[in-house]
Write a structure and sequence with these properties.
The complex is a heterodimer of chains A (542) and B (120). Chain A has 16 helices and 19 strands. Chain A is an alpha+beta fold. The chains are: A alpha+beta (542), B alpha/beta (120).
Amino acid sequence: MSQREKYAELFAAEAREHLSEMGRALVALEAEPGDRDSLDAVFRSVHTIKGMAAAMGYDVATRLAHNIESVLDELRSARRQVTSDVIDLLLESSDQLEEAVAATVDGREPADPSVTIEQLVLWRVSPPEEKEAPAPEAEEPAEPAPKRAAGPSSKRADASRVRVDIRRLDALMNLIGELAIVRGQLHVLAEQAGIEPLQNAVERAGGLISEMQVQVVESRMVPVWQVFDRFPRLVRDTARSLGKEVEIQISGKDLEFDRALLDAIGDPLVHLLRNSVDHGIESPKVREQIGKPQAGRIELSARRERARVVIVLSDDGRGIDRDRAVARARREGLLDATAEPTPQELFRILARPGFSTAKKVTTISGRGVGMDVVENSVRGLGGSVELVTEKGVGTTFRIELPLTIAIVRALIVTVAGQTYALPATFTRESLEVGAGDVQVAHGSEWITWRGGRVPLRRLQRLFANGSADGEGGNGPGADQLRLVALEFGGAQLAVSVDDFVGEEEIVVKSFNPPLGSAQLFSGATVRPDGRPALVIDVGSLS
Amino acid sequence: MSRTVLIVDDAIFMRTMIGDILKGAGFEVVGEASSGVEAVQKYKELKPDLVTMDIVMPDMGGIDAVKAIVEEDPDAKILMCSAMGQQGLVVEAIQAGARDFVVKPFQPSRVLEAVQRLLG
């Protein structure tokens, strides 16, 4: 018997056990909706099946199990209640999962699971949001023909170019990441050995590896028009369905950035564009009355600023009633009675699920559903979103992203005996201040930095849970504080650490997909000594 | 002398697969455990060079097991083997003392890379 047959047999036997356990626990849960043990048992079974199916490459079973698990997550976190409807849905899905497992084991093609998966997804995103027509493909001829930048990059069929599967580049990137770790280890070993020619050779190899990294990162870069070119059609169709007229102007289309980032930012941009057309731009009649041109205008631009990409999307519509949003945020305690929100805070306020100032909910956007997804996606990529709006004049979103996500420079620090990485995109300065320089106001700590008041966060306290030695000290003498000044989306922040280790190039293994809102870490990296360091999500600190 | 490993996962399937990968690389699988409680007990008994640890298990999950093992032996080398969608728990595991993680479904080469890094 081949190894694969052996695994398949083990899979079949164990998956069946878990399926029957799942059925049993689901029925128990229906009888007793608050029964935590049954809920956990269902979850464990599905989770185990998912892991096994994924290892076998059984795609249908993996996808089904994954989507069932996501529904169970909602129930386990108590965001949603156990109702008979959801039990029906789970029972149906487990039947389908059982069928998929049986089919795979018998060597049959499993039935198409898309209907079941769609139901599972729909349940999760309810209150229901009607699915819109899929966005047209970039290749489709858009009408009226979008004014594609006449530059040579648009449709270059150059004989000196080859097409490469993106997965190959990803694999290369991974390998280089591993190489970078080995380089760090070699460096340490060569230092210890104290052999000079060896050290020189290691240095040289290190330089070559860095160069290779740059080349691979560059080869993953694609021009933004590959994604932006479908927007004119999208805006036109959305506008037409709402009886509006909207012109869109796009600039900076030839800017290149990391393929993975570009793919990830597409959907959030689609959401913001729809939002602008739906809620921002007024109807032609209203626009005429208030003396604006009948056709609304949306501008989208991309440009590079240092090691960052900045995408700006603005419309000349009615703007968001900022005062109302701020008043409501104060009522709900999201904002101090006197504090004025920064542009970034303003976006966060408006992005909160259910926090919409739109009076009318439409099928295109509204309810605030989606803005939080935009915020989470951008944050997950290590970026930030700012919002500037003026009533009657328009709204501008400013999205900042790192140029690439796989390899970043980072400041390595220790906190309570653990090592952490702070992406250098956001670090401004490391400094030491006396304990007496910390001021306390409104229950928060502040320091003065470069002439301004900057809030202080003590990472020792934030990360205290889970570490063996708890709060820990702060450097050798508690009268001196070691701080890192950070800048994120225009806001400044200082964090206290125990020690600075140094600046390094790190390879980030991200926790994908970026979910959840209060995550403190965006990924992990392995240090030259083989120990992991968590990469701090700077956005979650501010 | 071959390195010893304790494999912790509630699925026999996973234990077999991970075991095969590691045996192929010259490891000796000295023990298997299907729950956190069992893992802690076997660790004390066997003192393996390496532990692979699942996260979601009945009778004490992988994170609590990591905490208990690290308390017993701060130098314990534990590799988390988690399924996708568990990123929050991976963070917790690393803070509890796990040294690295791989995400299921994993390629044998990825597991071995992580293991080699861990054991230096």
